[in-house]
Design a protein that fits this description.
about 260 residues, alpha/beta, Rossmann fold, six-stranded mixed beta sheet, four-stranded antiparallel beta sheet, binds adenosine-5'-triphosphate, transport, translocase, ATP binding, ATP-binding
Length: about 260
């Protein structure tokens, strides 16, 4: 097991009740898990706990069997990569440098990235279709391009587990489809992936299991096609949701009147 979350709970100081309670989740290599739920339900907070960036107020996270809270950041980063919802930098780094920095956890303290890292970086940028942006300033590219750069950066980090917070939020329709195909390919190669999304269709397209967070009900985790019923989705989002099947694909439609 790469990651094991045991009975996690989290409460922000000053908030009357916990954001979530009693979440347990095991991640093995090659598995893809989606976290779904309405705005503000706690998805990003949960991902930060799983990545060891926030300390849960209940329960614990084990990485390779060891409590993540006891591990040095570089040791965590060799196993696990988090792509947050947004990533800003105040420095005028080039796209190439931002991606190369993904390799830092594998380098010694005074090592400079060599030709191997340069090759990995170019390969990752090419995979994401943004090799032509290599020398652009990260601060001067679009939101979707930044999202692709961040995904390239974690490819160079080559972790065993990728944790992605709304990775498709800024991507155009084709890049969303390419991203889903890329994750499917990486998972076949043994990578474990946890991602959040506001598109339940992406859970159907990608996730072996889905964790549904809701303000009204207990967290529910199960096989995506079993857990994401019309009833569960409608209850979770508070609007009537229908599932439309077309071959292998399932599309969700919300029936909200004007
Ligand atoms: N630093 C903080 N201090 C206090 N409350 C916070 C803090 N960060 C987030 N929250 C609150 O915790 C709750 C969960 O936030 P979180 O960002 O985890 O939700 P989310 O499910 O990822 O939301 P979204 O889908 O809108 O991105 C929200 O009510 C939010 O307002």
């Amino acid at each position: 097991m790469i990651l094991a979350a045991e009975k996690l709970g989290f409460a922000y100081a000053g908030r009357p009740k916990p954001i979530f309670e009693d979440i347990s989740l095991d991640m093995a290599g090659g598995e893809v898990v989606c976290v779904l739920g309405p705005n503000g339900v706690g998805k990003s907070t949960l991902l930060r706990c799983l990545a060891g960036l926030s300390a849960p107020t209940a329960g614990r996270v084990l990485l390779d069997g060891k409590p993540i809270a006891t591990l040095p950041r570089a040791a965590i980063a060799r196993q696990l990569a988090l792509v947050p919802q947004s990533y800003e930098t105040v420095f005028a780094f080039s796209v190439r440098t931002v991606v190369e920095m993904g390799r830092a956890p594998h380098l010694g303290l005074f090592d400079m990235p060599g030709s191997e890292v340069a090759e990995m970086t170019l390969e990752a940028l090419t995979t994401l279709g943004i090799a032509d942006l290599a020398d652009a300033a990260y601060s001067e590219i679009s939101g979707g391009e930044r999202q692709l750069v961040q995904i390239a950066r974690v490819l160079v980090q080559s972790p065993r587990l990728m944790i992605l917070d709304e990775p498709t939020a800024h991507l155009d329709f084709a890049n969303q489809a390419r991203f889903l195909a890329l994750v499917r390919r990486l998972a076949k190669g043994g990578l474990a992936v946890i991602f959040t999304t506001h598109a339940p269709d992406h859970a159907y397209a990608l996730a072996d299991r889905t964790l549904v967070l809701s303000t009204q009900h207990k967290p529910a985790l199960g096989a995506t096609r079993e857990i994401l019923t019309e009833a569960t989705l409608s209850r979770t989002y508070g609007v009537p949701i229908r599932l439309i099947r077309s071959g292998q694909h399932i599309v969700c439609v919300a029936d909200v009147e004007a």
